[in-house]
Protein: Catalase
Amino acid sequence: MAPHAETYRSGRRTHRPGSLKAPDTHNSKLDSLEAQRKGGEDFPLTTNQGVRIADDQNSLRAGSRGPTLLEDFILREKITHFDHERIPERIVHARGSAAHGYFQPYKSLAALTKADFLSSADKITPVFVRFSTVQGGAGSADTVRDIRGFATKFYTDEGIFDLVGNNTPVFFIQDAMKFPDFVHAVKPEPHWAIPQGQSAHDTFWDYVSLQPETLHNVMWAMSDRGIPRSYRTMEGFGIHTFRLINAEGKATFVRFHWKPVAGKASLVWDEAQKLTGRDPDFHRRDLWEAIEAEDYPEFELGLQLIPEENEFAFDFDLLDPTKLIPEALVPVQRVGRMVLNRNPDNFFAENEQAAFHPGHIVPGIDFSNDPLLQGRLFSYTDTQISRLGGPNFHEIPINRPTCPYHNFQRDGMHRMDIDTNPANYEPNSINDNWPRETPPAAKRGGFESLAERVDGEKIRQRSPSFGEYYAQPRLFWLSQTPIEQQHIIDGFSFELSKVVRTWIRERVVDHLAHIDTKLAEAVGANLGIELSDDQRNITLPAPVNGVEKDPSLSLYADAEGDVKGRVVAVLLNERTSAQDLVQLLQALQAGRAQQAALLANGRSHCRRWFSAADRRHLRRLPFADGGCGGGARRRPQRPESER
Structure:
């Protein structure tokens, strides 16, 4: 730890926020960031130019009551820097939280890909993960109904690979041409900038009702997936079809998944709304405190693999980002584990300045012709230049690869590298043509795009295979448990009740009638819309490749029903014995509950009790005096038998 490291006491060890707390938090990326970390202990206060400051309390004036002098360079520097502290927030995914960690494969995937970070079970790769909401600004609440972002930056030995996904396996649109329209529609309405952090308004539902390709992801958003319990209990998906390429040049289509080890869980709508008011930082706090308590969030990387010869074996198009591949047809193979074991040291420097990009790939991984993915490859570069001030955003510490990088890109805003090569062009003889190209190879070779034949007329046209919009939303609906279906009905009913224009509501209900009659009838009844005979007799879509239900699409169809990762409230009264309480807390600890909140039914003579055997998962026990959500926190007081 650096000599200037800020320290504070937490639990059984002394450390600074985000500091190295266990040997496994050391990795090449964290070590490279150490040179950029700085505190302030035992150092004099200075200007940015290193001049020591004698008075940081008062401006330089002409007399004690006179005007402030323009020559006060200390004041000017301090105020000017303050005025420019903020950068443009992300247009979408502005609200987010991040963590460091590592990824390790379970076995070698060399038969599928020559990507080095997937080549061996012994390979450990540093990662940085950012979770986010989509619609709201940076100051919006965590528990709003929304899609969540799930972006992972792998610092591999061959360069950076960014897997930039969401907590749903599909997106709202098929073609990047419609992305600005979709975002404009879901964002706060332009005439009054309302609502913030939610989609319950006219412009969003107007767009949905006119673009049925949105319906599949809308179903996910209206379900419990739209209000996850925590980032730790949330699945992640790469959305698009990519390719894995092995050393022999053989390609396999792939869709990426993240499976939470803690299991899948959501809030209910009443909880989500109350938390928005009581603790708008609920998800951010949960992630941070879990890591600080060493209850590290873990995710398994899953792959759905489709041989190229099976590209057209489905009722849908693999290139359509509004369609998923049912796990009942192509099971997810779990191939590795990601552990998030360190919080950032500085929210702005690491979270806000992190630049994720779906175009950041490494040898052994390549793109497909997904039209949304193809547009993202341009958009992400463009937005990073705008948000981070120029083309050198890759030099910001959090974005730097851990492997060396050398090229002929020069200068630009915020250039930090000092290039000593006298030749800034290629070819050159002045520096013996260095840095040089690396030929493709099975290992540590230069990047080589998959060789495939591409031809066709220049047209602005969707493939007819993209033209079915209702079968997969119906599959999702039928795969839910009854309570999840009711929550979807409630979600649609709440959102559409905020839509002022009645014809927009009616169009949405008509679309729902093409998905499931009971769904449309239930939502319509809540909105005062009665289905017509024609709507009740719509021919509903056939099962997707014969699959009527897929339990993987439900949060609870295959749930284990355990307390792992949960916060459990324990209600106490005067008859509660210390022995019974200790046994209960030990059982919760064995079940890997994250926290236990002890709540006494009276405001006097209340004490927080917990088990001394609780070394890790129940170390933090919030105390509420007088009921749920009330009272101040107190110092831990163990029962006498446990002291």
Notes: The two ends are 33 Å apart (CA to CA).
